[in-house]
Each structure stands twice: as C-alpha cells, then as structure tokens.
Amino acid sequence: MAEFVGAIDQGTTSTRFMVFDHGGNEVAKHQLEHEQILPQSGWVEHDPAEIWERTRTVIERGLGNANLSSSDLAAVGVTNQRETAVVWNPKTGQPYYNAIVWQDTRTDRIASALEREGKGDVIRQKAGLPPATYFSAGKVQWILDNVDGVRAAAERGEAVFGNTDTWLTWNLTGGTDGGVHVTDVTNASRTMLMDLATLDWDDELLGFFGIPRSMLPTIVPSSDPEAYGVLRVPGAIRGEVPLTGVLGDQQAATVGQVCFAPGEAKNTYGTGNFMLLNTGNELVHSKNGLLTTVGYKMGDAAAVYCLEGSIAVTGSAVQWLRDQLGIISGAAESERLAGQVDDNGGVYFVPAFSGLFAPYWRSDARGAIVGLSRFNTNAHLARATLEAICYQSRDVADAMEKDSGVHLDVLKVDGGATANDLLMQMQADILGVPVSRPVVAETTSLGAAYAAGLATGFWGDQEALRENWNEDRRWEPTWSEDQRESAYAGWKKAVERTYGWVDVD
C-alpha cells in the first residue's frame, strides 16, 4: 500500500514538489525558481512552458531525493498561484502569450471602465470580487484583444484558458493527448467569471469581458476521486497515480492550517500576504474591501466560503531591498538589519508597487517611503519594510472584524517569512493578538496533499487532519494599546500619501 501523498506547489517565484506521510510530516522536497519577466512598468509575466518543465523536474528530483518512486504515492494534489492567466492552443499545446501574472497592472483601464459603466456592482454581487487588475478575466480579455489571431482561434475552438492549475492539470494528464481541461471551484472563484451561488460560469459576466464560454475549463470540486484523471508524466511518474485534489494556494493554506470551522483564520506570508477567514456555508459579501471567495469544496459536500484580504506586496518588498536596492544580501538578513534599531525612526514604507489591494483597492496608488530625516539608516528602512507587512495585515484583520463580527483570538501564520522571528513579534504587537506558527510551515503544499488524500481515503476525515496540526511557536503582544494605536495612525497617514500617484482612465 502506498504510504505517502505528493503535492505540486506552483508559486509566483518557484515550483516545488513535496511528499507527506500520514502524520502530515515532510518526507521529500525539491524546488526550482522560474524567470520573472518584466517587459515594462507594471507588466509581470511568466513563461508557461518553463513552468511546466520545472514541474516535471521537481517531481522527478523530489522523489529521487528520498529514494521514492511514484508507486509510493497514493495520490497527488496541485496548488497554484491564483489569477495568473494562460491561454493556449489545445491542439499544439503551445501558449499564445506568456502567462500574465496576478501582480500585473496592464488591465487597469479594463477594470476602471467596468466601474464607469456600472458593471462593478454586478461583479461584486455575483463573483464576490471588485473589478481589479488582480483577477483573471481582464487578463484573458487583454490577450484576446491584443495578441494577433487569438480571438479568431478561440472562436474556432483552438484557444483555451486556465489559471496555472488548469495549465498544469492539462499537461499532467496528457496535454495534447487527452489532457483534462478542468479547474477547481477555488481557482474559478478568482476569475470574475463564476457565480459564487451557482458555482458555474456566468454568461452575463462572460459578456462583460467578451470571453467565449468555450474557452473555459469545467469547474469541479477541490477534492474528487474522478474529476482530474491520472498523472501521465514520462520520466517522473511510472504507473497510475491519481490526481485527486486542486486548490488555489491561499485556500490550500487554509486547509493545511485546518481552518475548517467558521471563525477560524490564517495568514500566509509569501510574495504577498493573504488572510482568509472561514465563514462556513454562508456566502458573506464584504462591505469593507474584502473579497468573498470559495474556501474549498470536498467532493459532494457543500462549498465552504471565506472572506479574504489579499495584499499584493509583502515578501516581494523584502526581495526589492535585496535585488533593486542591494541593502541586504538575502531575505534572512532583513531580520538582522532591522534588529539593529529599536523602532522605525519615524519611517513608514508603503510598498504599493502594483497599487493597493485589500482593503483599499486603489490602482492609482504607488509605493512611498515617508518620514525620512538625516537620522535614518538602512536599518530603519529594513524595519519599516517588515512593519509594512504587519500593518497591511492589521488593515485586513480590522476589515474582517467589521464584516464578520468575529474578533480574532489568535492568528495562525504560515509561509516562508514566518521563519523571521522579529517579523512575527512585530505582527503580534501591531495586531494585538497572539501569533501561532505550526510545526509544518509549508501549509500550502500540505493543504493540496490533504485535498488529494481525503479524496482517496488516505485520510479518513477532517478530524484526522486536525490531529496532525501542532504548534511550533507562539508570539504574545508586548506593545501597550497606546503604542499600538499611535504607530498604526502613522501607517494610515502614510497610506494616504500614496493615493493618486498615477492617472487611471
């Protein structure tokens, strides 16, 4: 009997393959970065062919690193960067254009036109999302309108669309030789094209963007023994291994953190930050700048919904310090440098490189560093960068409390940046609640494995997954309430300084 479950985690900057045992412990991992293509200001792209090549490689090497074979896997799940759109020819397998990444802002005119034309409220009501550059539909419209021949190809049935989960699933299950063209409900809920109540594509929304329904994948549950098919990856997979779970990365982290009860929340610290609050089977529409999204749908069970606060730039701001400014040599050094000073020295950094996401949704905003004096050093900037991650999470947590009436008793955290102990202490201080990190920090991959394993009976039920969760460390707030509110007031003032920096038609 196969003793493990595998997970493909296709992220914004890298792709990894992980293997977990029944206790949810990491058994094997291999990870490879891919190129960030930046053709012009505000444009962010990936090469879909490179992502697929990296995926094959990490599966093969991940298994090899632990002397495992595909026969040791009971199932495999996929999790992915959401909203990143790929359009390809299903007959040749060739993309018509690079993947347009969720951070990309080229569709700002499409989004603002939807608001001007009064379509924004329809999208909010049906899809749970505001018209924004963040989501997939505008990216697909841009490709149809700007890449020669694609709209005609779509009308002929020779152009199909998917987020990266769909692109990978299609390739993993055979590609041009019978690949399965599907997406799960969580990824579909990030397109601006799915009705959250019916869990199906909506013709009115498709009409807003001029997207033919024939381009779209079939929407299926996040965990299902039949919907996704069997892996066919020569060189990496030998024998029949079922693909039985797919979740967008933040929903996968929610499952990995076992936030299965209404009122439970997690915050993932990655390229951006994403806080999700489980609202159960109730579809809660936000009045405070949050997104309503599908949390997961396990087989025939009813869908579980979440409120989400999506923050575009957090960990990538630390990368900016490293790659563009050169004041640190690696992400780990940010903790050492920021720790050289006791506070931010009056400096606030609002990293609105792609505008501001939740809860502001200001595409006219751009990054700003304010409060500088001759006294300030690179250490103050490093500290302000880490604090910006925490303040943006506070913005989202406050909006969640207003929408749901739920006050967080503790915040579960995951993602690579949670290794930064100073950052986690800052988060507890700025939020005013304890912060809890699990033993397995890679909860995104773990959640994909859980979805796949539940479908095959590898794990019997959600309670079995709860038993796997263990706390590694907890940070308690140390700031006084006056200190916390004074510092937060400075942040809010800094955010206002970023508004209106670029003109949006």
Radius of gyration: 22 Å
Give the class from helix and strand content and strand pairing: alpha/beta
Most strands sheet:
7 strands, mixed
Rounded average pLDDT? 93
- Report the sheet-strand fraction: 15-25%
Strand order of the largest sheet: 16-17-15-14-20-21-22
Give me some keywords for this one.
34% helix, alpha/beta
Chart the SSEs and their pairings.
Elements: E1 4-10, E2 14-20, E3 26-33, E4 45-46, H1 48-65, E5 73-80, E6 85-88, E7 99-100, H2 108-116, H3 120-127, H4 136-146, H5 150-155, E8 160-163, H6 164-172, E9 182-184, H7 185-188, E10 194-195, E11 200-201, H8 203-209, E12 218-220, E13 243-248, H9 249-256, E14 265-269, E15 273-280, E16 291-296, E17 304-311, H10 315-325, H11 331-338, E18 348-350, E19 368-370, H12 378-404, E20 411-414, H13 421-431, E21 435-438, H14 443-456, H15 462-466, E22 471-475, H16 481-496
Parallel strand pairs: 1-5, 5-13, 9-12, 14-20, 20-21
Antiparallel strand pairs: 1-2, 2-3, 4-7, 6-8, 10-11, 14-15, 15-17, 16-17, 18-19, 21-22
Helix pairs in contact: 1-6, 9-14, 10-12, 11-12, 12-13
